[in-house]
Design a protein that fits this description.
alpha/beta; eight-stranded mixed beta sheet; 50% helix; binds guanosine-5'-diphosphate
C-alpha cells in the first residue's frame, strides 16, 4: 500500500547521500520533498505540517550524532517522527480483571468489522482465550448469518438472536450476550455492531446505547484504509459519537494510497492497535508503529 511513499522518501534520502554536511538549503529542499511525498500518499494536511516542521527543526538543530552521516541522520529523524505519528509504542489489548472482557467493534458498513470479529476471535482463541462473538448488527439482513459463517470458520461460538423471533433490538441482544458469557465462562466477548455507509445519527446513537449496555473494556474503531481522507473524518465522527480506545486499520493490502489511515492515530489521539491485510482470517496482526515505519523507510 505504501510503495509510492517508500519510493519518494528513498529518492529524497538518496539525494543527500555523500554529503558531508547539510546546508540550510539542503534541509529546506529535503523538507519540501518529504512534504510532497506525504501529501501525495494522502496523509492528512495538518499531520503533514506538524511532521515536516518537527523533522526540519530536528535536522536544523541537528542533534548531531557523529556516528551517522547527514543522510542517515535524516532517515533516523524521519523514522522516529513516523513512529510518533503512528502512535509510538504498540498498545496491547486490556483484559478485564473480572471476565468477560468486552470488546466492541464500531465503524462504517463495509469497513471490515464482521471479518475482524472472526480474525480477533481466532487470534484470541490461539492465545488460549475463550472468546464469543455477538451479532448486534441487526441492520443488514445478512449480517447475523455472515457473523455465524465467520465464527464457524474461526471456531468461535456466536451469540445471535433466534431466527424468526422478530428480534430487532441489538441493545437487548448485546446485554443478553454478557449474561450468556458469564454463564458459559467465555472470557472475551466481541460485539459486532451495525454501520451505515456514511455516518448516521441514528446508528451512532444505537452504538452508544450498546456501549452503555455492555460497558466495553475496549471499543475498537475499524476503518478501511482505502477510503482516503474520509477515514479521518469518520474517525472524528465516531470519536465524538461513540468514543473509542483504539483503531483497527483494515484492507492495508489494497493499492490505494493509505496515508489518511496513517494519520488517524495522530488526529484522534487513539493508538492503532491492529491491522488487517487480507480477507483470510489470518491476514491480521497487532500493529507495531516501529515496524510500519521501517517498512515505509526500508
Ligand atoms: P462490515 O460491514 O464492517 O462488517 O465489513 P465486512 O467484514 O463485511 O467486510 C467488508 C468486505 O471487506 C468483505 O468483502 C471482506 O471480505 C472485505 N475485507 C475485510 N477486511 C479486509 C482486508 O483486510 N483486506 C481485504 N482485501 N478485504 C477485506
Amino acid at each position: 500500500m505504501f510503495d509510492t511513499l517508500q519510493d519518494r522518501l528513498q529518492a529524497t534520502f538518496r539525494n543527500l547521500r555523500g554529503k558531508a554536511r547539510l546546508t540550510d538549503a539542503d534541509i529546506d529542499a529535503t523538507a519540501r520533498e518529504i512534504r510532497l511525498a506525504l501529501l501525495e500518499a494522502d496523509v492528512n494536511l495538518a499531520v503533514v505540517k506538524e511532521f515536516v516542521a518537527a523533522v526540519k527543526a530536528r535536522a536544523t538543530g541537528a542533534e548531531l550524532n557523529q556516528a551517522l552521516n547527514p543522510s542517515q541522520q535524516i532517515v533516523k529523524i524521519v523514522n522516529e517522527e513516523l513512529v510518533e505519528i503512528l502512535g509510538g509504542q504498540a498498545r496491547q489489548l486490556r483484559f478485564a480483571k473480572n471476565p468477560p472482557t468486552v470488546i466492541m467493534l464500531a465503524g462504517l458498513q463495509g469497513s471490515g468489522k464482521t471479518t475482524l470479529a472472526g480474525k480477533l476471535g481466532l487470534w484470541l482463541r490461539e492465545q488460549g482465550h475463550t472468546p464469543m462473538l455477538v451479532a448486534a448488527d441487526l441492520q443488514r439482513p445478512n449480517a447475523v448469518n455472515q457473523l455465524q459463517v465467520v465464527g464457524g470458520r474461526a471456531g468461535v461460538p456466536v451469540f445471535a438472536p433466534e431466527p424468526g423471533n422478530g428480534i430487532g433490538d441489538p441493545v437487548s441482544v448485546a446485554r443478553a450476550s454478557i449474561e450468556e458469557a458469564r454463564r458459559k465462562y467465555y472470557d472475551t466477548v466481541i460485539v459486532d455492531t451495525a454501520g451505515r455507509l456514511g455516518v448516521d445519527a441514528e446508528l451512532m446513537q444505537q452504538a452508544a446505547d450498546i456501549r452503555d449496555a455492555v460497558n466495553p473494556d475496549e471499543i475498537l474503531f475499524v476503518v478501511d484504509a482505502m477510503i482516503g481522507q474520509d477515514a479521518v473524518n469518520t474517525a472524528n465522527a465516531f470519536a465524538e459519537g461513540v468514543g473509542f480506545d483504539g483503531v483497527v486499520l483494515s484492507k492495508l493490502d489494497g493499492d490505494a494510497r493509505g496515508g489518511a489511515a496513517l494519520s488517524i492515530a495522530k488526529v484522534t489521539g487513539r493508538p492503532i492497535m491492529f491491522a488487517s491485510n487480507g480477507e483470510a482470517l489470518r491476514d491480521f496482526d497487532l500493529f507495531h508503529p516501529d515496524r510500519m515505519a521501517s517498512r515505509i523507510l526500508d
